[in-house]
Amino acid sequence: MNYENVLSEFQNGITTITINRPKKLNALNSDTIQELHDAFEEADNNEDTKVIIITGSGEKAFVAGADISEFAHFSVNEGGQLAAQGQALLFDFVENLSTPVIAAVNGFALGGGLELAMSCHFRVASSNARMGLPETSLGVIPGYGGTQRLPQLVGKGRAMEMIMTAGMIDAKQAFSYGLVNHVVEQDELLALCDKIASKIMKNSSVAIGKAIKAINANYKDGKDGYKVEIKQFGKCFGTEDFVEGTTAFLEKRKADFPGK
Ligand code: COA
49: helix, coil or strand? Predict the structure, then answer.
């Protein structure tokens, strides 16, 4: 599929999705959110895509936030709808994909940008990255899951401070908070993400999809994560990947998993 604001490239089991509005620091307008939904869906449906990497184009920004020019004049109802639609189309959608998604945070990840990175399964940052939820400086609060996912990742007190001060933290601090798993120079960022993706690809995609479901269940209201784990664990026993994985171990050879 061809997109206006998004590039999608497949190579060696990895689909790399690049948000491509560098002149607007890759700010998320509604068209871009829809295109990202479509690109993620397309990659997830592709049997050959084992890992998805999302990054921003240019050297300055991952995403500098939701596009402020689009919502500056919204009413109460429109504001609520913006958050609900965005969460369903992109942020919750990405979090719940069974294909692993790595955020390669290559610069500013602010507001909706940090919220998008936090919806991904984990994050790797370049050393120039700056992250924050500046919404309260605009008289609004994070609306794409930021008030929920930031405390999950960094703890309530740090999230409170970041949201109240509307300030930015650098990559080093984000690493010390556990918000990003690795920090590297910008020109090494995608190579490191590819390397991590290659390690992931050696394992069962089917099992990884079930692990994502079980891990996410811990953060969902009304779900007992342990019960979800038991169910997903049991389901693994009915998969070809389980037969291959255990047979390969017993035959002292590398597993060759059938796929998604
Ligand atoms: N929405 C819409 N446009 C945005 C944007 C956003 N969130 N972030 C940046 N842009 C646009 C700017 O308006 C500017 O457009 P222009 O050249 O047509 O005037 C362009 O991107 C470049 O940004 P600029 O502000 O000139 O770059 P800078 O290096 O001086 O500052 C930032 C970089 C990230 C500090 C600054 O752009 C910023 O504070 N952005 C908003 C961050 C924010 O509040 N995000 C949360 C939104 S809820």
Answer: coil
The finding on whether 255 has its CB within 6 A of some atom of ligand 1 is: no
Q: Is the CB of 111 under 6 A from ligand 1?
A: yes
Percent of the chain with pLDDT over 70: 100
Strands of 108-110's sheet in order across = 61-63, 108-110, 130-132, 168-170
Please state at what angle helix 240-250 crosses helix 205-217, rounded to 10 degrees: 110
Residue located nearest, by CA, to atom 30 of ligand 1: 25
H or E, element range at 140: none
pTM of the predicted structure, to 2 decimals: 0.97
Q: Helix (H, G, I), strand (E, B), or coil: what is residue 88?
A: helix
pLDDT for position 185: 98
Q: How far is CA 168 from CA 128, 162, 190, 245, in A?
A: 12, 7, 23, 44
234 vs 105: CA distance, rounded Å: 36
Q: What digits encode the pLDDT tens for the residues 139-183?
A: 999 999 999 999 999 999 999 999 999 999 999 999 999 999 999
The Cα 260–Cα 258 span in angstroms is 7
